[in-house]
Amino acid sequence: MKSATIAVLIFSAVSIAQEYRGRVQGVVTDATDAAVSGAAVRLQNVDTGVAAVKPTDNYGHYLFDLVVPGTYKLVTETPGFSRFEQENILVQNRGDITVNVKLQVGAVSETVKVLDTPVAIQFNTSGMDLTIDNGLVSNLPVVARNPFTLALLDPAVTN
């Protein structure tokens, strides 16, 4: 019985460590930095078109958990304020992205569109992440022809 409990604990720890999805979160405020509760925040994957909508809580916070890596667009709407759009949000593996929204007073028919890419620094986590793209893999020498040694490029992986 004791060995079965230990095996369950080990396998559950391994399954948690294998999560690749990230999250997008932030705070919705108005021009006076007061929290806007009940605002509809929509996160849409640009490549697939799949979208999820979440309302902000009483403190203006929103959270999209288990977000598949990719490029996203965030749209925030609420009555009495202009519509807010943020494009080019890049969610990487295990990424924790914060996009704070500042709504302007106006009609919903008006849109404040932000085209710049948000800052790539992740303030919400102390983890050391590294995304290895195809170009990096093709230009690196693979010692002993073992592709699993490429995992050692991530600072969080130990041999």
Walkthrough of the structure:
By secondary structure, the chain is α/β, with parallel strands linked by helices. It has two domains: 101 residues, Immunoglobulin-like (Sandwich), CATH 2.60.40; 32 residues, no CATH class. Helix content is 14%, strand content 33%. The strands form two sheets. Strands 3-2-5-6-9 form a five-stranded mixed β-sheet, with no helix packed on it. Strands 1, 4, 7 and 8 form a four-stranded mixed β-sheet that branches. The longest helix has 16 residues.
Average of per-residue pLDDT values: 81
Contiguous runs where pLDDT drops below 50 for at least 5 residues: none
Alpha carbon gap, first and last residue: 31 Å
Main sheet record: 5 strands, mixed
Radius of gyration: 20 Å
CATH superfamily of the largest domain: Carboxypeptidase-like, regulatory domain
Q: Based on helices, strands and strand pairing, what is the structural class? A: alpha/beta
What CATH calls the topology of the largest domain is: Immunoglobulin-like
The count of DSSP E runs of length 2 or more, i.e. the number of strands, is 9
CATH level-1 class of the largest domain: Mainly Beta
The helix tally amounts to: 2
Written as H for each helix and E for each strand, in order along the chain, the element string is HEEEEEEEEEH
Portion of residues within helices: 10-25%
Strand arrangement within the widest β-sheet reads 3-2-5-6-9
Q: In the CATH classification, which architecture of the largest domain applies?
A: Sandwich
Shape: elongated
- As for the number of domains, it is 2
**Fraction of residues in β-strands:** 25-35%
